[in-house]
Amino acid sequence: MFTMHKILETYIPIAEVIAKTFGQDCEVVVHDLTVPQNSVVYTVNNHVTGRKVGQSFDHLITEVLLSQNFTNDFSANYYFQTEDGRMIKSSTLLIRDQEKKVMGALCINVDTTAITENINWLSKMIPANPNQFPKPVPKQENLSEMEHIREIADELIDKIIGDKPLEKLRRDEKVEMIRFMEEKGVFLIRGTIDKVAEKLNISKVTVYSYIEEIKGKSSSSEKVV
Q1: pLDDT tens-digit profile of 131-185?
Q2: Does this model's pTM top 0.85?
Q3: What is the domain partition of the chain in residue ranges?
Q4: What is the homologous superfamily of the domain 6-123 according to CATH?
Q5: What secondary structure, in 3-state letters, does the chain show?
């Protein structure tokens, strides 16, 4: 059972009206980023990507925080593919609490399958003029913006590690936390290795060794048929 923060509850009507406006191909997801490993707290039309309450975020870092289009706490109109090959058009808005700290996110995911099928049908009726997605533009580093992103990343790291006494954390628990961060792209943000090492009271070398161990296990499992 997940208890939803009062601030996030105010986004439920917004999620519902967005989904009702754009129909069954539009999924809306509300995340509670104070619990990163189980951030999904509300979904509408979750058949689009299969998001379920209790799951964690997927694209927050790679497609939002590190996106060229991330500004004013949102990134609009980025794309990702589902496991079955459908193209999803997505937008994410960060949600802040009374102290202006990031505590949640509102994500809109639109299945473009029907739109693409109609475009393909229409394209047969006119001269061919293939229209490709624009190539991603490398994000230009801006010092104030990078500080803003690092602040959000630091808050995520704090929430992932939690407040359990470090002396009671087993090695496998630390490895699992680092595995989650690696999987979600946390370490793509500059300075996060240092932050995690400091928070877990271990060396940077140890963090790197854990990451290599995790990648090694992942590579081994991929080779199993």
Answers
A1: 555 555 555 556 677 888 989 999 999 999 998 888 888 999 999 999 999 999 9
A2: no
A3: 6-123, 143-223
A4: PAS domain (3.30.450.20)
A5: CCCCCHHHHCCHHHHHHHHHHHCCCEEEEEEECCCHHHCEEEEECCCCCCCCCCCCCCCHHHHHHCCCCCECCEEEEEEEECCCCCEEEEEEEEEECCCCCEEEEEEEEEECHHHHHHHHHHHCCCCCCCCCCCCCCCCCCCHHHHHHHHHHHHHHHHHHHCCCCHHHCCHHHHHHHHHHHHHHCHHHCCCHHHHHHHHHCCCHHHHHHHHHHHHHHHHHHHHCC
